[in-house]
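Section 5.1 Outputs to date
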Amino acid sequence: MVLLIGFAVATVASAVLPSFGLVVVARFVAGLPHGAYFGIASIVAGDIMGPGKRGKGIALVLLGLSVANVVGVPAVTWIGQVASWRVAYGVVAALFALTFLAVSAFVPRSARDVHATIGRELRVFRLPQAWIVMSLGAVGFGGFFAVYSYISPLVQNVTGLSESTVPLVLVVVGLGMVVGGLLGGFLADHSVKATIFVGLFALIGALLVTVLTAQWVVGLFVGAFLLGATSSAIPPAVQSRLMDIAGDARTIAAALNHSAFNLGNSLGAALGGAVIAAGFGFLAPGWLGIGLALLGVVVAVISYAVEGRSKRRAAALRTAGASTGPIREVVSTH
């Protein structure tokens, strides 16, 4: 609830501050609660869903992001076009206030972890696997945002449609995210590893469809739906893996998943803008996204290779300990 207050206050500030620089500062402040909020919400949802359904719980929380892309983003984009961006931010702030009321009324209180400490949570940063998996989320998801950040110029300059079509394309992306998020949560409960690899390769396929067919209206909308579906299928699995790796530090691990994806948002948008500015055209972010998604596959391979080596080493140590146990016992009796 405190994080929701932070969202609302910073968004109101974004709507009323007088200069671009101050608005940028307000947007930065508004972004600070994001990872923590979605991380904690995912843990609460996983606990409510019960054992064996954590992936579905995470997916349901992330479904909120998908619904936002179906309804919220297009609606606020339209409001910004017909009214002003300040009015659009005011609407978003009102939604945060309504969410605060809904959380206070309906979300059950959970038992406090009496053993939780800041030091225990921060120990996750000592784990190499945590850094690897965060890199996977940032790089792999950056491929999606390289394209998504520039949907408007893609629609207008490549497909040749009007600006008024952009919200409709965003709706289609959001519908894909709804379908992909639910499917990704279901698959993550069965196999996190398979979901990560299948999701990344599916994202690569969706990016290929987009860059090869975006000049046609049908290709644009098919690619938009596939981009939404494949990108949203990956986060529940990545978050589940981070929480498994972190052990007792699952709260910060859940938040780090969203930090990683926000880094992917920034990375994809920045690199996508760079290739457009360099004169490679509005399809160039798609090819860049394919490269980032492929890099995500490489990072995933490294992550599981490191894990496999650690398991083999642990198994070897257990075997060695078992084989020397009787000898030690004999020596001790003499």
